[in-house]
Amino acid sequence: MAKHGAASMLTLALLLGVFALIPTAVQSIGVCYGVIGNNLPTASDVVQLYNSNGIGAMRIYFADPKALTALNLGGTNINLIMDVGNENLGAFATNPSAATTWVKNNIQAFPDVSFRYIAVGNEVSGGNTQNILPAMKNINSALSAAGLGSIKVSTSVSQGVIAGFPPSAGTFSSGASSYMVPIARYLESTGAPLLANVYPYFSYVGNQAQIDIEYALFTSPGTVVQDGDNAYQNLFDAVVDTFYSALESAGAGSVKIVVSESGWPSGGGTAASTSNAQTYNQNLINHVGLGQGTPKRRGPMEAYIFAMFNENNKTGLETEKHFGLFNPDKSPAYPISF
Ligand SMILES: *[C@@H]1O[C@H](CO)[C@@H](O)[C@H](O)[C@H]1NC(C)=O
Predict the structure, then answer these.
(1) What would the pLDDT profile of 317-334 be if each residue is shown by its tens digit?
(2) SS3 for 296?
């Protein structure tokens, strides 16, 4: 018995040892699911495609009942960022009951969806920026009242809200600081992250004289920017750290950045090729997967690739139609592994 008992203890110790080595599962890479195409798969097929590829997080750009229904049925394991469309911010800012109704119809109605963050607007501009913070507060109150306070409320911003170089000199830009500083401080008080859309592609295209494409594609052989003690080998980290410096300068240094979009187009413009898109997105997945964070903020990070599909009805630049990891028939646009 004693022997058997000792063996059991050893077995138990080994088991505990083994379990202790299993990292606590944090799905760090997600993919944005945009639906501006006339040839895309059904939402339940899309959820299946996330599952079969092991993609554990999704962003959707509005409270899409089809996506929510499919996630509620077959996507409980998929963490979700859900946007409040920019056109709704005014109503939610001024009318708490509109926020309550939205939470009821689009969150409480889908109890098996793993809502993680609500993005109150995406790259909001102009006078509508004044609505972001009051709308965030009303949605936060509605979530708390519904017992859903663990869902964090934020907003998704573009690189246009930051300025400064090198990364340690980052601040909110003169055009954005009036609304971003109060938002940053509010996020600090709620413990929510700031959602940031980070595009080395557009930085590169807009400044090819000063930015080497290797720096944008994560393929530089060594340090490109030395900033005090921090050495930058890729532009992605430099942009994320510029956001962190901006948060610090706003008095909100404990707020985390979640990269709510990043990607590279496979066609339709300068440096847009399947080869560059594959290189960027695979290197982004690998970089985030290392769990080392950025030079300024070590540790796990969370990023969402834009986007799941090539969307043929997107307007704007031709490249907008070519950010997809998958074709509308669900075949990969190029090989990628998650
Ligand atoms: C979407 O794009 C396809 C292909 O270009 C086109 O045939 C269709 O008319 C577009 N639909 C809308 C609603 O714009």
Answers:
(1) 999 999 999 999 999 999
(2) coil
How many whole angstroms from its chain centre is CA 43? 20
Q: What is the mean pLDDT of residues 185-212?
A: 98
What are the tokens at 246?
């901006």
d(CA 172, CA 183): 11
Q: Which fold has domain 24-321?
A: TIM Barrel (3.20.20)
Confidence check: pLDDT of 22 > 90: no
**String of DSSP letters for 164-224:** -SSGGG-EE-TTTHHHHHHHHHHHHHHTPPEEEE--HHHHHHHTTTT--HHHHTT--SS-S
Which ligand 1 atom sits nearest the alpha carbon of residue 312? Answer: 2
Centre of ligand 1 from the C-alpha of residue 331, in Å: 20
Confidence band, pLDDT 50/70/90 cuts, at residue 26:
low
User: What is the pLDDT at residue 27?
Assistant: 56
Ligand 1 pocket by C-beta < 6 Å: which residues?
A: 38, 312-313
Nearest 5°: phi and psi at 216? -75, -30
Q: Which of 39, 309, 312, 322 to mutate to test the pocket of ligand 1 (most atoms within 8 A of CB)?
A: 312
Domain residue ranges in the chain: 24-321
**pTM, rounded to two decimals:** 0.92
Instruction: Spell out a b/e string for 206-218, using b for 16 or more CB atoms within 10 Å of the CB, else e.
Output: eeeeebebbbbbb
The answer on pLDDT for 21 being more than 90 is no
